[in-house]
Every structure is written in C-alpha cells, then in structure tokens.
Specification:
The structure is a single chain. This protein has about 150 residues and is an alpha+beta fold. It has one domain. Helices cover about 20% and strands about 35% of the residues. It contains two helices and seven strands. Helix 1 packs antiparallel against helix 2. The chain is globular.
Length: about 150
Amino acid sequence: MFDIKLSSAIATLVEGMLPRFSGEKALVIRLGVTVYDPEMRGDDRQIRETQMVFERKQAHTKVFVADRKDRQEPLVWMLESDHDSCWQEDGVRTPLSKLYFRMCNEVNPDKPPAHLDHYVTIEKVQMFDEGVGIERGPDQFGPGRYLLKGFKGI
C-alpha cells in the first residue's frame, strides 16, 4: 500500500480549508496515533489522541497541539508555531516527530523506532467559524501551555 507523508497531508488540508486572512475561523484536526512492537502480544501498544488547532487570522499561521492517552483527560495545548512560512515544520512535523519518538520509547526503550510499527488515522476534521477561544492556561500546566476556553476538542 502507498504511504502518505502525514505532515504534508495536514498542511494540504489546512491550505485548502483555511486560507490566510480567515478571520476568527479555526480548523481542528484529530488524529489517532498508535505505536507497537510487532513481536509482542499488544501489551506494549501505545495509543494517543492528538488534536491540532490552526488559526490563520492574518498572513501567519498559529498551530496549537495537544495529545492525551485517555479521552477523559483534559486537553492542554501547546502553541507550537506562529509563523507565516515555517508553520508546517514547527507546528506540524516537529511536534508529530517528538510524539512518535516519545511513544516509541514508551513501547520499548531498548528497541530502535525502525523496528516498531505505527499507524495514524485522521479521525475528524472540523471547521469552527467563531474560533475556539484560545487563552493562556494556568501555571500548573507549565510554561507556554494554553487552554481553549469552553472547547473540549472534537
């Protein structure tokens, strides 16, 4: 089967659905990410829900990313990018790469990631015409963390 470069697919969705100067609109993409060791019985499987919020009020693109193991956990967002040109690298590719390597380490810290299997599904894509109410979160979540007021994710 063909593989699709995830970061390119996400960037294409954002460029097509949320052009620059989109005002208060926000695009939210939810991913299901799984990493596992094919030699194990599944006890090692790591599954994450990852959500990305994109805003393009002006020429620049803001990208907020959050992930969680359990849907009952609150989504705590990190502003990963606020650029006009490198948002695809800073806001999409880099956080997804960090998540991948973190999950590989949780599956088996002694095994190189190339020896583990993974897959990602795009679970939902949703546009919000009025934005999602982003504001800086309380200090207990750590520096640079944000809460999306009244927004529980998609």
